[in-house]
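Per reviewer request, we include the raw input and output of the structure prediction for the construct analysed in the revised manuscript.
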Amino acid sequence: MHSIKELFKIGNGPSSSHTIGPKRAVLEFKKRYPAIDYCRCVLYGSLALTGKGHLTDYIIENTMMPIPCTVEFDIMTTKSHPNTMELFGYRNNELIGSMEIYSIGGGAIKIKGDEDIVASEIYPLTTFSEIREYCKNKEIRLYDYVNEVEDDSFDDYMESIYETMLNAIQRGLNTTGVLPGSLEIKRKASYLFNQKTEKLDNSDLMRKNLMAYAYAVAEENASGGEIVTAPTCGAAGVLPACLGYALDKCIYPHEEIINALKTAGLIGNIVKKNGSISGAEAGCQAEVGTACSMAAAFLAELKGLSIDRIEVAAEIALEHHLGLTCDPIDGYVQIPCIERNAVAALRALDAATLASYLNNRDSKISFDLVVETMLATGKDLGYEYRETSEGGLAKKYR
């Protein structure tokens, strides 16, 4: 597995695979071919079908500046990866370089025929069962294993992740108006957070705020604001919402919260390695489902649950997202994405709570098994349900 730094990335929405990944691809292309004076880009698969709504052409053209670039959307040609883009660089109308790039989710990219851009894998253990046994034998927590593997700069990096998540919440809560795009959706985070009612007890109030935090970050993402991929842009609101919820309780020391974020990152990393975090590859179960699993593990860690019960929390959260489709209306990361972040944050809280009461020895389904199942389920999903805007709500809305 790669460093958790490759999972938690700070960037601008609305999509890790459709904006952050293509931006990285363009920057790499410019570095390799600095002499070009014109670029042609062709998008395929999900990038072509939902690129307009995800601002893919906008981010490519702006990243390529001052070099002029034309972006083409090829929805007919099938490539080996659903998020494929080709870049062609010219000098005096002569082709001098080209690249075929795959945006594989969470902002990560692969270049056909070139492994140099792929980050090195640093985690020797890659399944939850392996990591669980290692930690039990050493009598350490999951985040201790993370600390053993990551480098000395990792704590500072996690502080920046923590701050970016909180800043996204605050910006989202303090911003009103309409989200970009033809759907003309009004922002709801501020309205939801500021609603007052005497009928809410403290527990209900905290759950309301949890939803508001998820809306805040998801709306920031939809507006192209700065967020953390957790594990992706489209699912970026779930874990920060649970972070805000934990801070509202005012009972957890800062170090414990950072440690819990490390545990969440480890869970996301396991899914990324053995399953998928790409909506174009495996549907929204890979994005929001993984985010819910990460957030459930985060809350379970804060509760001080055993490693076995943290596994139960993460497994419950992911299992009950199996089969979840990715069908963004008009290609925007807005409907059903924003509301889905709020629902998943609530489900993460409930999964962690349920795990704290269940006898983990009665669990028949391991986290590794549900990750494997999620990937298989994603491959079985119809193409139109994997971030193409050609099925489900996206089709019916038309």
